[in-house]
Amino acid sequence: MRKSLTIDSPARLHFGFMELNDSNSRVFGSIGLAITNFKFKQTIQLNKDFDVICSDKSVKDRIEEIIKLFSKNYKIKKCRLTVTDFVPLHKGLGSGTQISLNTGLLLSSFNNLNLSIENLSKFLGRGQRSGVGVETFKSGGFIIDTGKQKNSNSPPLKLINIKWPKSWHIILVSDIGFSGLYGKKETKEFRKLKNISSKFAKENCFSLLMKIIPGLLENDFFTFANGIQKVQENMSEIFYGNKNNFSSQNISKIFSFLREKQYIGFGQSSWGPTGFIFCENENKREEIFNMIENFIELKKIEGINLLKVRGRNFGNKIY
């Protein structure tokens, strides 16, 4: 029997939903991408009692809740879980799903429970709207899910997984002092959505099928970026009342600057505040990165962190 196991899984970006009109029988349908730089990594080993070691109290508390849930439903060995890396919480990077599935799969593997990721998702309450977090955990890459039937407890099915082009780069823009919505507040915002125009679903689905997917498959960056931009504009209009608005005012200023430069391929991940900017190659990334740095300095915008990341074409790893 293995004395210890270690698992790591990626952060993800979430780009939006295809359908948010809850009068339809099938809703949501989402797109997203696993990314590098941020990951959730923890090790499990036998111990005299259950113990969680983590520098972040919120992460530690959530893992302890998951251990209690497993203990009530399965026979598991007492263990120590040590977290060495975790995805920043409530920044639009999918931390909640990664904590849950990372811990759940580790407990399942260590105790030979053989639980599938789909069953773990149901058990731990993940994938209630979007399947992007679950599927990036499984396989990484660019994920498109089929949405779900109303009132279904099953996670959305993966429609397609596409490898992220190696030559394409990403800049993340984060507002350090700002947190996105989660939990009950997030649920409340979705319940507020009423009478969503059918034009949004039509535009989003057209952008996905005729721009985003072919752009990825044919390595056509501008077609892909054009499709992403339309979906992002629609998300902003639905949730913030204006296609140019985002959760962080400072990030909105940076994106307005990019818009003035007629740049496309940027937006907000999930509820933010993390924003993303896609770049067709490394040289373009450096150009845009330096341009934004200069803009931030010129406008004296404080609390913004810029980070260069890549797409990650593999999911969790256990070793």
How would you describe the overall organization of this protein?
With 319 residues, this protein is an alpha+beta fold. 40% of the residues lie in helices and 25% in strands. It contains 9 helices and 12 strands. The protein has helices spanning 57-73, 95-110, 117-124, 132-139, 183-192, 198-217, 221-240, 249-260, 282-299, and strands at residues 4-19, 26-46, 51-53, 79-85, 142-145, 148-149, 158-162, 169-175, 266-268, 275-279, 304-309, 317-318. Strands 1, 2, 3, 4, 5, 6, 7 and 12 form an 8-stranded mixed sheet that branches. Strands 9-10-8-11 form a 4-stranded antiparallel sheet, sandwiched between helices. Helix 1 crosses helix 2 (95-110) and helix 2 (95-110) packs across helix 3 (117-124). The longest helix is centred in the middle third of the chain and has 20 residues, at 198-217. The chain is globular. The two termini are 13 Å apart.
Quaternary state reads single chain
Order of helices and strands: EEEHEHHHEEEEHHHHEEHEE
**Sheet bearing the most strands, described?**
8 strands, mixed
Low-confidence stretches: none
Distance between the termini: 13 Å
What is the alpha-carbon Rg in Å?
A: 20 Å
* Estimated share of beta-strand residues: 25-35%
Which shape, going by the Cα principal axes? globular
Structural class comes to alpha+beta
Indicate the percent of residues in helices.
40-55%
Helix count from the secondary structure assignment? 9
Mean pLDDT: 94
How many E-type strands? 12
